Amino acid sequence: MSPGLRAAGGIVKKSGKKAAGGFTGIQFHKGKGQHILKNPMVVQSIVDKAGIKSTDTVLEIGPGTGNLTMRLLEKAKKVIAVEVDPRMVLELQRRVQETPYAASLQVIQGDVMKSELPYFDICVANIPYQISSPLVFKLLTMSSNFRAAIIMFQHEFAMRLVAQRDDKLYSRLAVNTQLLARVHHLLKVGRNNFRPPPQVDSSVVRIEPRRPPPPVNLREWDGLVRLCFLRKNKTLGAIFRQASVLALLEANAATIAALKTTGITQAAAQDANMFEAAGEADNAADIDAMDEDDEAGGTGTNPTQLRGKKHKFSQAFKDRVLAVLDSRGMTERRAAKLSQDDFLALLAAFNAADIHFSP
Known about the structure:
CATH topology of the largest domain: Rossmann fold
Structural class: alpha/beta
CATH superfamily of the largest domain: Vaccinia Virus protein VP39
Helix content: 25-40%
Strand order of the largest sheet: 4-3-2-5-6-9-7
Order of helices and strands: EHEHEHEEHEHHEEEHHHHHH
Mean pLDDT: 82
Number of helices: 12
Low-confidence stretches: 1-24, 266-274, 276-301, 303-308
């Protein structure tokens, strides 16, 4: 696994003296993403690019022993630091005590993916890379009206987030993220800026949630996008002619029709405003191993789950699906060439024809 990177403080030398940063050190675990960001210019650049106001509450995820935390405290009204490692929590508390910033720091010990996050204006995060995608979608689907998140990712993952159509790295991850947020690449951070150096370079990305969020059923959206990126360089006509795709879509239609007859709406049957398992297939640690055409998280229709099974669908339903593609001029188009507006228009056309991507 490729570790996430922490802006952590100093380490203990064999002499027992305090290392740079003013702390008795602790042993950092590479496997847990604990690397020291040793370049103070990079730390300052992250703070500057975050655009922090003096009235802001900053949520910092993965503070380590506090190099970045101290710079954030100089700018913000309050910093809430979420750290899973109790040793790091202790070091951070020691570092800030008896400073003017002691009352401005709140430390939460726990796993950020399992924690209920408090109110914040800006998020700054240096995280284990294996939670990159789940964290992005946790932040983007929460109700808090935060202004932006500035997060350090593995460089390749960051490039997938910001990719545009026609880019080689354009994927479900990019489409899903950019539906919910504006994403900007801020800064590439070479591996030599860390001690010990990780195996990969990193990048800092700014994510600004769209306010208000788009009026889209996210499970329907992700189901469509998942299908389209099953083979992103194949035409949509070829994808939607697959027996497994047609069988699942017709099954979805039957399920929704049954719910309607019993007076249960689709919205009541599911939480339509969440990617239930965001990032399941696209954790950055698995980038090299994953299928390039099955990226990002979510719970959409996945025909690959039905391989080896007999697929049944009606000709009338197939004709209806293909008629939608023809009506939008999408039959010969490919997912890698579609914009956000193209996907939105296609989803609306399918739904208008009672074709759904989430049961």
